[in-house]
Structures are given as C-alpha cells and as structure tokens.
Amino acid sequence: MILKSNIKKDFNSIYKIINEAAFAYKGIIPKDRWKEPYISKEELKIQINEGVEFWNYQNDNEIIGVMGIQFKNEVTLIRHAYIKTFFQQKGIGSKLLIHLIEMVKTPVLIGTWADASWAINFYKKHGFKVLSNEQKNNLLNTYWKVPERQMQTSVILASKSWKYK
C-alpha cells in the first residue's frame, strides 16, 4: 500500500530506511562523498522543510520503502528513493515511482550518483534519459543545493516530458 508519509509519525522509519539502503553506495561512490550516516536527521529535516514530501510503501503496516517528491515550479524532483534491503528487487521502487509520476503534471528530474549503475538502469527502465553534463550542471545549480564535488560525480535523468534543450 502506498501512502503519503506522516512526517511526525514516520520520520524515524524514513531516516532508517534511507541510511540502511544507502549503504549500497559505500565503496561505489567516491570515498570523499560517503559518510555515515548517509543523511543525518538534521539534513533530512532541512530537506523536508524545503518541500520534500515523502511517500511510503507499507507491508503489514510496516514502512519498507520511501520516495520523496519535491515540486519546483516547472519541474518535479524525485528525491531519496530507497527500499529496505530485504525487500529490494520486488517491484516496490517501481510502484512508488509510477505512483509519484502519475501525480504530477510537470517533467520529472532525478539526480543520482554517476557510479550507481543499478539506480541509473532502474530509471532508464522507466523511460528516463541521462542528460548531458552541461544540462546536469545547469539543473543542479537551478533545482538542487549540492556541493561542487557532488555535481562532478552525479548524473541527472529526465522523464520523457522533459524538453531537451
């Protein structure tokens, strides 16, 4: 079942799922970008306060997957898409992504690590295209707040409705 997260009630579950599932990046992304926890509670609270809305996938009233969405004027960003390790590869991420895409009327952009091939392939399977480095840098500067080093080691994928410039 997919539900909009109640941040007061679900915050700790969201935090734990992100940090557990993000462990897949350890040893894959550049060492200088890895930290534990992957996202702190403070960072997560800031992003929520900046408009990231979380949706969750529940199994027997337990949250086993989360995906954030952030509306930014003429685009929608997918943020923090994570599934508990035990439940990965069971279609939960696809269900969450499809649900969120169906909610929006604007093109969808997704940022991920350039070396996270599994994530890139997941989004490509859902019709997203990797944008050029120039487009990536422009979009990261416009819609995200990330350090320069993260810009160098990331990719941006866009939905079919994105007008490639």
Q: What would you say about this model in short?
A:
The chain has 165 residues and is of the alpha+beta class. The chain contains six helices and seven strands. Helix content is 37%, strand content 26%.
Can you describe this structure?
- With 165 residues, this protein is of the alpha+beta class.
- It is built from 6 helices and 7 strands; from the N terminus they run βααβββαβαβααβ.
- The chain has helices spanning 7-21, 41-49, 92-103, 117-125, 133-143, 148-152, and strands spanning 2-4, 53-59, 62-72, 75-83, 108-113, 129-130, 154-158.
- Strands 1-2-3-4-5-7-6 form a 7-stranded mixed beta sheet, with helices on both faces.
- The radius of gyration is 15 Å and the shape is globular.
- The N and C termini lie far apart (37 Å).
- The relative contact order is 0.15.
How far apart the termini lie comes to: 37 Å
The total count of strands amounts to: 7
Give the biggest beta sheet. Answer: 7 strands, mixed
Nearest-integer average pLDDT: 94
Number of helices: 6
**What is the number of domains?**
1
Task: Give helix and strand order, one letter per element, not per position.
Answer: EHHEEEHEHEHHE
As a percent range, the share of helical residues equals 25-40%
Overall structural class, as computed from helix and strand content, comes to: alpha+beta
The CATH homologous superfamily is termed Gcn5-related N-acetyltransferase (GNAT)
Q: Give the overall form.
A: globular
**CATH topology, what is it called?**
Aminopeptidase
Q: Give Rg in angstroms.
A: 15 Å
Proper CATH architecture:
3-Layer(aba) Sandwich
The strands making up the biggest β-sheet line up spatially as 1-2-3-4-5-7-6
Strand content: 25-35%
